[in-house]
Amino acid sequence: MIDFFEQTMRRINLNSAEQWALLAMVAFLPALEAPKKIAVILFLAFWVINRWRSKEWGGPWSGWDFVVLALIGGAYASAAFGAFWPDKGLGAANDVLIYGLVFLALRRSRFEEKFLWRLFGVAIVATLVTLLYGYWGFLVTKKRVFLELNSVGHVNHSAIYMAIIFSMALAWAGAVIGSWGQRALLWVCVALLWLSLFVSQARGALIPVVIFALLWIVARATMVQRALWKPVLLLVLMLGGAVLIFPGVVEKTRNSAEAKQLGSYRPALAKVSLLALREYPAFGVGITNFGKIKPDVIARWQEQSGALFSPEELLSYPHAHGLYFNTLAERGLVGTLPLLAFLAGIGLALLRSRPPRETSPLQQTLWGAALGAWVITAVGGIFNTTLHHEHALLTMILLGIWLGQTKPQISRRDSDSELKVSGKSSALFWH
After folding, report:
1. Percent of the chain residues past pLDDT 90, beyond the cut
2. What distance in Å separates the CA atoms of residue 204 and residue 210, rounded to the nearest whole number?
3. How many other CB atoms sit within 10 Å of the CB of residue 108?
4. Are 170 and 397 in contact (CB under 8 A)?
């Protein structure tokens, strides 16, 4: 019976089904909740079936597998052993499991160039179409107070998602590929995403996206060996034009400065996180439990620790308004160290494998999109809770695909020491 089932499965080509599921994932990710979840499950199922049939699992065990599994384990450990029993802890840990598995699957996969361009196009178009719906609710029906993507939700998270898609679109446009009409259309998409970020007024997403743009300009100028002043001037004009058209970001910053809350209470939330870490250093208060750190809990911790901070320096809030302090408080060191190791590993891999001059447009786009996802997650994590739900999955898709396309190809017939390298591969951090 097992042999019959295996022979039957081998006759069915599910490679295209796997790719269609991945396309559906990025298409529904910003827009619709249920289809997105179905697409994720189908992609992972088809990926496992296809690798089981081919007996090719994308290479041996690596440091990436270890650190991502540790990240997943840290999330579940905080749900099980955190100080407070979580209301939604299992669901939040499942979220880490899903985007971790998608990253591991894509890191062990390779796709044809045509499919990857199609995937990028679907991701950009899906975001812009969902943005149209968001503008309708924001400007026409007035049912939304802020510009948001339907499935992503809160304006800060929607802005993070848009920033990642913007970085992908900018890297693609900078790669200079396609006809003049196609390139012009792509730059229009870049401009729409850029202006939408200013409409959202989410400074926590704008700061890292500007940092990414500067890094990409430097990298791009190095690739084509051209002067930096022209692209830097373009970025300054883009910034100035966006601020003139949508001055809300500047006004919001001025109002925060006048209220002496330029950090929007983030320092106070960071101090609460440090208190939580002091009390529960291993597993934290439990994933999604930051909101349970009420004023009476803070007062008790202060009394036990000898009043480290004055009461006006502390604040009770549903989350810490930042990836790092939120993770420290909710997951403790067991959950935070794998996160830091993962982000540091990606950063080193991006630095070591930056594209040389002769790199193809696809490799330039893959690296630029991965750089954008990393910068917006790592730098944006100082200001917002990045690596969360939809934009976490988008980040892991871009990082996983980039690593999968740049790592050496390893066949199951090769030993661990005999690698068959296709094309010019770059030295990555954990292979």
Report:
1. 36
2. 11
3. 21
4. no
Q: Which contacts qualify for 278-282: CB closer than 8 Å, 24 or more apart?
A: 278/305, 278/308, 279/83, 279/304, 279/305, 280/82, 280/83, 280/332, 281/332, 281/333, 282/81, 282/332, 282/333, 282/334
Tally Cβ neighbours within 10 Å of residue 352: 11
Per-domain boundaries in the chain = 1-55
Residues contacting residue 395 through CB under 8 Å, at least 6 positions apart: 99, 164, 373, 374, 376, 377, 386, 387
69 and 165 in contact (C-beta within 8 Å)? no
Number of residues written out for the chain: 431
Burial of 255 (0-12, 13-18, 19+ CB in 10 A): exposed
Closest CA to 397 of 69, 125, 1, 19: 19
Neighbours of 401 (CB within 10 A): 23
Q: Are 172 and 178 contacting, i.e. CB atoms less than 8 angstroms apart?
A: no
- Contact present, 138 and 181 (Cβ < 8 Å): no
The two tokens of residue 94 are: 């499942």
H or E stretch covering 228: none
Taken in order 55, 57, 59, 60, is the CA torsion positive or negative?
negative
Render pLDDT for 86-114 as a digit per residue (tens, 0 to 9): 666 688 899 999 999 999 999 998 888 89
Q: CB atoms < 10 A from the CB of 392, how many?
A: 25
Confidence of residue 374 (pLDDT cuts 50, 70, 90): very high
Ordered alpha helix ranges (H), 225-294: 229-245, 248-258, 266-279
Query: Do 272 and 316 contact (CB within 8 A), yes or no?
Result: yes
Tell me which amino acid residue 163 is.
A
Summarised one tens digit per residue, pLDDT across range 46-79 is 989 888 887 787 777 888 999 999 999 999 999 9
Distances (CA, A) of 367 to 189, 250, 347, 401: 19, 32, 11, 10
Whether the CA torsion 74, 80, 81, 82 is positive or negative: it is positive
What's the rounded Cα separation, in Å, for the pair 41 and 64? 22
- Residues 143, 137: contact at Cβ < 8 Å? yes
Lowest mean pLDDT among 13-17, 80-84, 336-340: 13-17
**CA atoms 198, 199, 201, 202: torsion sign:** negative
